[in-house]
Amino acid sequence: MLKCANTFLLLIIALSTGFTTKLDEVTNYYGIPETLTFDNVDFKLSWSSHPNATYYKQEYLPKNNTSEHFDDMLIIDFIVTDLSVKDAVGAQIKTLMERKKTDAICNYSVAKSPDGNEYILDFLMSESAGDKISIIEWNGYHYKPYTDKAGHNGVLLFAISHRAYSDQAIPFLKSLKTYKTEQVTKLLKYPTPEIQLK
Q1: Residue 78 near residue 146 (C-beta atoms within 8 A)
Q2: Domain spans, the chain
Q3: Residues 168/173/179/183 CA torsion (nearest 10 deg)
């Protein structure tokens, strides 16, 4: 029971937006191409983390974007665990419910595949400077169970994140319904990289 609780806590921490510890060296832990193309945009591996034995994270950015100020980002997370995809999604939703207490714009929706094995969680968050929105961030998270050729079993997350800043925040909110419908459709059709842990 204690092991399960610790794993669940790790998911709450690890699978939430805002994991900001940065390392100078970028390691490709997944053995996949360092440049991925999504929605006709090339994303290059920009940062990776393997903070413990079970959790891996890689971020990909388009040219001229940085982790501190980006328009779009691809995220691939993998956690080695016996926990279900449903529980992983539940952990992320729990963090969003907490955020909603201090972020009036924060909201989410979730959908699952007909077989119940995969989930799409899309959510919106914001930061403000006084009464003015400084950042709007929309995320589309595709969760699925995954086992690599070496037998590492767990939950794989492939995600797209988009930000709008300051004066662009309100126009983006107005276009959000169409934007997120298009992005979720593209996310569902995208062939998830076949990662192999190193």
Answers
A1: yes
A2: 2-18+29-189
A3: 90
Mention the CATH class of domain 2-18+29-189. alpha beta
Confidence (pTM): 0.87
| Overall residue count recorded for the chain in this entry | 198
Q: What's the 3-state SS for the chain?
A: CHHHHHHHHHHHHHCCCCCCCCCCCCCCCCCCCCEEEECCEEEEEEEEECCCCCEEEEEEECCCCCCCCCCEEEEEEEEECCCCHHHHHHHHHHHHHHHCCCCCCCEEEEEECCCCCCEEEEEEEEEEECCEEEEEEEEEEEEEEEECCCCCEEEEEEEEEEEEEHHHHHHHHHHHHHHHHHHHHHHHHCCCCCCCCC
pLDDT digits (tens, 9 = 90+) for 2-57: 233 333 334 444 444 444 444 457 999 999 999 999 999 999 999 999 999 999 99
**Token pair for residue 187?**
């996310």
Q: Which two tokens stand for residue 104?
A: 């009036």
Q: How far apart are CA 161 and CA 83, in angstroms?
A: 25
Calpha distance 112→29 (Å, rounded): 28
Rounded CA Rg of the chain: 16
In the block, residue with structure tokens 């569902």: 188
